[in-house]
Design a protein that fits this description.
- The protein is of the alpha/beta class.
- The protein has helices at about 5-25, 30-45, 75-85, 95-100, 105-110, 125-135, 160-170, 185-190, 215-225; strands spanning about 50-55, 65-70, 90-95, 115, 140-145, 175-180, 200-205.
- The protein has a 7-stranded mixed β-sheet, with helices on both faces.
- The longest helix has 22 residues, at about 5-25.
- The protein starts with a helix and ends with a helix.
Amino acid sequence: MNFHKIKMAIYALFLTNYFGFKLKKTSDSAEKKRLRLEYSQTLLGKLKISVEIKNEERLYKDGQFLVISNHRGIIDPLILEIALKESSIFGLWISKKELYNSPFFGLFVRNAGSILLDREKSQMGGFFSDIKKGVKEGASIFVFPEGTRNKSDKSLIEFKDGARVMALKNRLPILPVYISTHTDKALGTALDDKKAEQIITIEIGELIDYRDRTNLEEAYKRQFSI
């Protein structure tokens, strides 16, 4: 590990927990959105990573949605926060148990606005109840339907069934977005070369009705020509 990587790891740990404490002090969704955006812009700025949005005109300024995205790197949530900065859309992230308990991300994830997905539980009723409560309070839901980071050579791995169920149970229109840049590789470049300036591209898709019975993975692939 080079000196730049060590320095960035220390900085990222400080920044993540600093914003985790700030997020803990507020229950206001607009303030949480502002803090999440500030965190995202600060960290990506330090990494010299900027975000380009394609089809930005398809973004809604407000409303409630199930926002779905592919997932190739740990900075993907930051990319999405920046993509939605001009809208008032605030989403609760579906987060795995590992992130809740992480010494690095735990404080931030627990306080930033998220719903715990514990796959070890035999019953998922509490999980779906938490989603319903969040939607009733005005939040959107943000989810990576692949269920985990895609570490394969494929552009996309198989979608889990949960995303479609979330949309249907809560009558949420589905807003698909596609991060076309390989974000894990981009992060690696940023950590290897502190002078490297990079642009990550995110594409906005067309809204999918929650009642549409088309296979969600196939509809997603078709929209983004994957």
